[in-house]
Specification:
With 347 residues, the chain is an alpha/beta fold. It has 14 helices and 14 strands.
């Protein structure tokens, strides 16, 4: 099978020749692995056996702005600073009225440029499973706009304000994703989105609030992917087991990255309860095993996870973090991918 065939077979909850492999890596880890293994980018993907490739859009016009006084600036004008992606330096809608929310300078989806994506995708077309589209982290964006605690109060006290802000945010992601797929939908396989709805101890929203404020927008974005014949997958960290029925209801085809160290995220139970309804991607502990363990422990844990998750298909093997972090030993990641190939055969 090609990588593309392997992945799409797994999405259909059928057994491919072997379990597909996924490698999401931070720039720090990627550069370290390149240096230690003496490989270029594509050679490194081949060494790991990554069955996926990602093609990216660009921002032009006002959305291509830089933020010289801070670490990053989102397309919604939120400046962030600090460790990693940083934290928002302000919450511009914290005290906004409904009119002020509507009058906020929301980004223009026509400033999303997909012109280079087709050529990028053609390099992998037919061989690898290709991601594209907006990451669409609308839950994080609305937290930035209001502040987290304030947002939760407003969900009860002024829900119309939350509805208006999320609607504007998702309008941007939906319209720009549609523009991307109008240009490239025939050469892309999967719409991959990201929103973290969980913490180490459970969901950050109860099911009732999640279904009220979040589910309709996930369904809208998932429907866009499906309208172009694509699979849809969500990255979501944390202990989100109570939300998985709602994620399935939203139409998502896959869920990444299955943080097994969080409350409620027992792999055997997740597989038994939902394994025939949604593809699981991840599940190999990137914290205590990949970062702190030895290659031998990594091999043992990878084999254990495969034994639980691979029966019947519907599984992609990879780490429990969307980015393998820079402090992760390269030899442990090599051991994980070698074990996926060794123990992940269905034949």
């Amino acid at each position: 099978m090609t990588s593309r065939e392997r992945v799409l077979t797994a999405f259909e909850h059928k057994k491919p020749d072997r379990v597909p492999a996924w490698c999401g890596a931070s720039p720090d880890f990627w550069e370290k692995a390149r240096q230690e293994l003496g490989l270029d980018d594509e050679e490194l993907r081949l060494r790991f056996g990554d069955d996926f490739r990602w093609v990216f859009h660009k921002y032009v016009g006002s959305l291509s702005r830089t933020a010289p006084t801070c670490l990053t600036e989102t397309v919604f004008g939120i400046k962030r600073d600090g460790v990693g992606y940083g934290q928002p330096l302000s919450h511009p809608l914290a005290e906004a009225s409904l009119k002020e929310i509507h009058d906020y300078p929301w980004p223009d989806p026509t400033e999303v440029d997909a012109s280079s994506m087709r050529a990028d995708a053609e390099k992998y077309r037919g061989e690898y499973a290709i991601f594209g589209g907006q990451w669409s982290p609308f839950f994080h964006d609305v937290i930035d706009m209001f502040g987290m605690e304030n947002l939760y109060f407003k969900m009860y006290d002024e829900p119309e304000l939350v509805d208006a802000a999320i609607q504007h945010i998702v309008d941007f992601y939906a319209e720009s994703t549609t523009r991307i797929f109008d240009a490239t939908g025939d050469v892309i396989d999967i719409l991959f989105m990201g929103n973290d709805f969980g913490s180490q101890t459970g969901p950050m929203l109860g099911v009732e609030l999640f279904d009220r404020f979040i589910l309709p927008h996930l369904r809208r974005l998932s429907d866009i992917g499906h309208s172009y014949g694509l699979k849809t997958m969500l990255h979501c960290c944390g202990g989100i087991a109570p939300l998985i029925p709602s994620l399935i209801e939203s139409g998502l085809d896959g869920l990444h990255a299955i943080q097994t160290t969080c409350q409620g995220m027992d792999l055997a139970k997740l597989k038994a309860d939902f394994g025939d309804k949604i593809l699981f991607n991840g599940g190999i502990d990137s914290h205590h095993v990949l970062i702190e363990g030895t290659p031998e422990l990594v091999r043992e844990e990878t084999q254990h996870v495969l034994e639980i998750m691979m029966p019947g298909g519907g599984y992609v093997a990879g780490a429990t973090h969307d980015y393998i972090l820079g402090e992760t030993p390269v030899e442990n990641v090599v051991a994980m991918f070698d074990a996926i190939r060794e123990y992940g055969s269905y034949s």
